Amino acid sequence: MAINQRTTISRQDLGSRALVDEFLRTPPQDVGCDLTMDALHSYAEMTAAGENPEELFAGLAVHLQSCLACAGDHEALLRAVREFGGDELL
Ligand SMILES: [Zn+2]
After folding, report:
1. Suppose 29 and one of 7, 40, 59, 85 were both cysteines; which one would form an S-S bond, judging by CB atoms 3.0 to 4.6 Å apart?
2. pLDDT for 8-40, tens place per residue?
3. How far is the CA of 48 from the centre of ligand 1 (A)?
4. How far is the CA of 33 from the centre of ligand 1 (A)?
5. Are 89 and 58 in contact (CB under 8 A)?
6. Residue 36 and residue 68: Cα distance in Å, rounded?
7. Residue 4 C-alpha to ligand 1 middle, in angstroms?
């Protein structure tokens, strides 16, 4: 019963103007911090290798442009991969 109640409330919230605007401002491809963390080492290795990780990880590339924390982690990881090589590091 409690679950049904919650579902009803969230549907009403989605209909509100402010939340719809908020949703439209968010790039739909942005994968968020959790998924970025999962794939960031692969992304950094591809960047270091001169490949184009943004083709494979489009949502991650979008996220790096909007999230300073993850962009900073990517920079640090990229520096580490370039200095020490990805294989020994991971
Ligand atoms: Zn993030």
Report:
1. 59
2. 555 555 556 776 666 556 555 789 999 999 999
3. 20
4. 4
5. no
6. 12
7. 32
